[in-house]
Amino acid sequence: MDDPETGRHRALSGSGAEPGKPFAQVATRALEWLLPPTCPGCRAQVSAPGGLCPDCWERITFLGNPQCSTCGFPFTFQVGPLGGEETLCGDCAREHPPWKRARAAFSYDDASRDLVLAFKHADRTDWAPLFAAWLERAGAELIGDADVIVPVPLHWMRLYTRRYNQAAEIARALSNRAAVPFAPQLLVRPKRSKSQGRLGRRARFLNVQGVFRVPSHQMAALEGKCVLLIDDVLTTGATVGTAAKALLSAGARQVDVLTLARVVRT
């Protein structure tokens, strides 16, 4: 059948053992011998599929503490005790975002940009398991509290032209790793908007107003749930903020945000 979120064909599997699994494993090993695995960052040969070479690993700026407890903005030094009261960046102190917590795996910069764009536009969905592992490390606390994992959806016309939703691909892979239900049906994007790429901060917020909604027949399933919202890049927070508002208005108890990358402005 067709997956409503990714638009891809998905086979129905039975409850018994998979008779073709040994053959698939042999075929995979043969393919790896013929086409050795390469680094997603620079295409250099690596020892195992889904790994970065040492040079690319050194260039990626992975994020973690110390950081803003609400949006995950990295601090240069720890402000206050870890595990104590919330430590907020200036933006979150002035106006708290709709979500409770946001985290990202790495900084979106010159070193990581090509990696993200290739995954988003060049059909490199085979990198989703690698990215899911990074998300699991960056968002362990959020994942532990989540009842469901929901990707930021695409409008159906953009999904048709792109052929897959990059947020849904990493959300599905994360769901498989973390054993948290993947629920793309809980949030839809019936209104088409411009690409956010060339828009300024204010224009980004205006561009996504009212573009998301929770289908009425899904509200009961969402009621009282802690939602982990997944997207590829957090820039101003306009997209995930609007999506979080739609989920909260429809009955979600809490929304946390986990993205592959985030823009870090100094």
Describe the model.
The chain is of the alpha/beta class and 266 residues long. The chain folds into 2 domains: 41 residues, no CATH class; 200 residues, Rossmann fold (3-Layer(aba) Sandwich). The protein contains 11 helices and 4 strands. The chain has a 4-stranded parallel β-sheet with strand order 1-4-3-2, sandwiched between helices. Helix 5 packs across helix 8. The radius of gyration is 19 Å and the shape is globular. The N terminus is likely disordered.
What is the N-to-C order of secondary-structure elements (H for helix, E for strand)? HHHEHHHEHHHHEHE
If helices are DSSP runs of H or I spanning 4 or more residues, what is the number of helices? 11
Q: Report the C-alpha radius of gyration, rounded.
A: 19 Å
Runs in which pLDDT lies below 50 for 5 or more consecutive residues are 1-18
| Basic shape | globular
- Measure the end-to-end span: 47 Å
Beta-strand residue percentage: 5-15%
CATH second-level architecture of the largest domain: 3-Layer(aba) Sandwich
For the sheet with most strands, the description reads: 4 strands, parallel
Number of domains: 2
Measured as a percent range, the helix fraction is: 25-40%
- The CATH topology name of the largest domain reads Rossmann fold
SS-based class: alpha/beta
Q: Give the tally of β-strands.
A: 4
User: What number is the mean pLDDT?
Assistant: 83
CATH class of the largest domain: Alpha Beta
Kindly report the spatial arrangement of strands forming the biggest sheet: 1-4-3-2
